């Protein structure tokens, strides 16, 4: 299963994206601000700094596994091998304050936020669990 996250708005305090699954639009996303200023997939260049809990995931392709979140006490998608990051999840949330560096899923029907995030997370987990149980590799490409 291939997820693709396309950034559509880069603001000073949040980032909005569109998430597709196997080429079909699935939902909107909300992340922290993008700090990879030259879009090269790292935060190693002059002027780029990771701010803990307040930095969007750099461009790249990452493997996703499903794992129990100690914080949220439920199975969630975890992005692996993201340079400068650990514990990056995809989960429900409505505002930039809910991200802490993670990718929030829902519908971008309000400025700078999401609605219907709980049902969107549940639908995403249904699809990812089905793919995982079928032995499919799950990846996400962020652009």
What does this structure look like?
- It is a single chain.
- With 143 residues, the protein is mainly beta.
- It has one domain (2-142).
- 12% of the residues lie in helices and 41% in strands.
- The protein contains one helix and nine strands, in the order E-E-E-E-E-E-E-E-H-E.
- It has one helix at residues 117-133; strands spanning 2-10, 15-21, 24-31, 60-68, 75-79, 88-91, 103-110, 113-115, 138-142.
- It has an eight-stranded mixed β-barrel.
- The longest helix has 17 residues, at 117-133.
What are the SSEs and their pairings?
Blueprint: E1 2-10, E2 15-21, E3 24-31, E4 60-68, E5 75-79, E6 88-91, E7 103-110, E8 113-115, H1 117-133, E9 138-142
Parallel strand pairs: 1-9, 6-7
Antiparallel strand pairs: 1-2, 2-3, 3-7, 4-5, 4-9, 5-6, 7-8
Name the average pLDDT.
96
How many distinct domains? 1
Q: Strands across the major sheet, in which order?
A: 1-2-3-7-6-5-4-9
**Amount of helix:** 10-25%
List the secondary-structure elements in sequence, H or E: EEEEEEEEHE
Number of helices: 1
Q: How many β-strand runs?
A: 9
The largest sheet is: 8 strands, mixed, barrel
- Contiguous low-pLDDT stretches (5 residues minimum) are none
Radius of gyration: 14 Å
Question: Approximately what portion of the residues adopt beta-strand conformation?
Answer: 35-45%
- Content-based structural category: mainly beta
Apparent shape: globular
Euclidean distance between termini CA atoms = 17 Å
**What oligomeric state do the depicted chains represent?**
single chain
């Amino acid at each position: 299963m291939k997820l693709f996250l396309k950034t559509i708005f880069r603001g000073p305090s949040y980032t909005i994206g569109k998430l597709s699954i196997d080429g079909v639009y699935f939902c909107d996303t909300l992340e922290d601000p993008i700090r990879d200023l030259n879009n090269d997939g790292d935060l190693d260049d002059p002027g780029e700094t990771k701010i803990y809990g307040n930095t969007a995931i750099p461009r790249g392709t990452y493997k996703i596994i499903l794992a129990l979140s100690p914080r949220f006490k439920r199975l969630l998608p975890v992005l692996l091998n993201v340079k400068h990051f650990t514990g990056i999840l995809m989960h429900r949330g409505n505002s930039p304050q809910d991200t802490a560096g993670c990718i929030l899923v829902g519908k971008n029907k309000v400025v700078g936020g999401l609605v219907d995030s709980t049902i969107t997370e549940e639908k995403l987990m249904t699809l990812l669990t089905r793919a995982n149980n079928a032995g499919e590799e799950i990846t996400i490409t962020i652009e």
